[in-house]
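Q: May I have one protein plus its fold?
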Amino acid sequence: MICLDITDTLEGGASVNAVVDYTVHGLVSGVFTNIAQGQLSNTDPSVLYTTAAAISIVSVVFVNTHTVPVTVNLYLDPANAGTPRRMIPKNLSLGIGYSMHFDGARCTILDASGGIVSGVNISDTAYAASWDGVTTIAPSKNAVYDAMVQANVIGLRVADSPTFTGVTAATFKMTTGAGAGLVATSDADGDISWAAGGGAPGGADTQVQFNDAGAFAGDGGLVWNNTAKELKVVKAAIGVTPGDYGVALDNTTAAGAGAQQYSPALRFRGRGWKTDGAGASQTVDFRAYVIPIQGVLAPTGKFTLESSIAGAAYVAALSIYSSGVIEILGAIQSTLSGGDARGIGAIDLQLTRTATTQVPSGDESAILGGHGNTVTATTSVIVVGSRSTITGGSVHFIGSGDSNIINGGSSAYSAIVNGQTCVITGHACFIGTGSYLTIANAYNVPNSAIVSGYWQKITMVPYAFIGSGFGGHCYLPGQHSHGGNAWADVYGTCQHSRVVGKIETTNATATDATLFNGSWVPITLWLNRTYQFTVRVSARQVGGSSGTIGDSGVWIYRGGIKVAATVGTTLLIGAVAEELKLLDAAAAGWTVACTADTTNGALTVTFTGEANKAVHVTVVVDFVEVG
């Protein structure tokens, strides 16, 4: 019996959580009661029961429901003061299905069949003649002396034929007929005798032995070279079909829904040297195996190749699907050795490099041929060609050519199809083909293009376009230029170009046409240039409390303007000619003027509307430029 005062706690624990049932019975206020029940926690100790009044516990039962033995403990913690005291042996082991019964004085262990597990100590004193007839000491692991005298034991006497059932001892001795090199063998009735071991090998020298209908055999198709440490499998006369397998790795377990059965793996292992620190030899492993994939009508699968360095987890590198699809999970590179590390999922198939950096080091990048090419941007490609480079940003493309460059910074989506010494520094820009073509945009200034030509340039503006030509130059937002063989090798000194601006008014305030460059800017001119310009203006009322929606006007002006080395020298050449002016009657008060802006070095096209009329104005300026 165990006595508990008020606030005392009964505590316990187990080595495995929630697998040992416990029940506690006792006397509460004169009534026998099931005081507590549950499963032991692996937080040892944990409180099983806290008394609210003085009680007596008459039994505590633990039952191991786990599939392996579990250790248990039982404690009494007076007043739950944090110093529990043990009441059963420390870490008492309960076998599978075993139970412990404790009444405060006696601890009984029952096995899974309900038999009592004895706790009586066994004497390990070696037997001797003095043990003859001793009955006061339990026997040791050796049998008592008088029972082991061979002449007295039925079944072991020389005249008997002993039979052993269920013997699992590791060693026994049978002297009759024994000799060095012999092995014990049995016949169909289980009779044991000594016989010569091994038997004569089958086949010829170096042939691997196998069981052929109960006899050793060898075959010339399965040979081991012990000097070279080489296993050879030979299969002759195959012809043009592989026929049956030379080597088969087979998982014979049937698959189930959601439970595919992988094939055994074939592993290759070498050892390499690492140079950092004191240096060390480390394992380099590859393994190959089949991964089945569950399917509706039939399963599919993939053949997977993985690698592991220095015993680390295997990482997939390549998979070939049963459909013929090849999945590249690491970096692919050509047979050329060296070079910096390739990016994750990168492909490197170029055959020549002159620097270690000439690799696709960006993740998911590729160099598919050529020589001396470099890709550090992610998800970018150089197909073929030489000495071309893609750096910064992502999703860029160079098709072919020599010494082309895309410097993407933080941008994306730029492309050079072909060419020589072409350069893009910008977002979503395009060069088709040609030589010495440059789009020098800021990284966040997008969507400019040069289709073809020689020695042409777009400078720091968006939406610009050069179709073809020689020496063309775009320096205004949305400018379209066509060069005609620049003077003195200076961009834009012999070209035609066009820009499109806009004006929006709701009153009679004069408003200048502007171009969009992330913000609205004037139509600035390149220094040291002379321009013939043609200005076309279309205006339309789109709202307002006065007038009528749809009232319109159109104008055409021609003139000349020039600028020297500073913006303050901007000057019209003579008077601007008005060639066309067509107005609805309600738009008769609308006006257009073309002037020189000496503050910005620009051509200013100004529209003046009317109060309470919302008017949209489109301005197209054509330049014939010389420098």
Observations:
- Residues 497-626 form a domain with the Immunoglobulin-like fold (CATH 2.60.40.1680).
- The chain has a mean pLDDT of 88.
- The chain is about 0% helix and 45% strand.
- The radius of gyration is 48 Å.
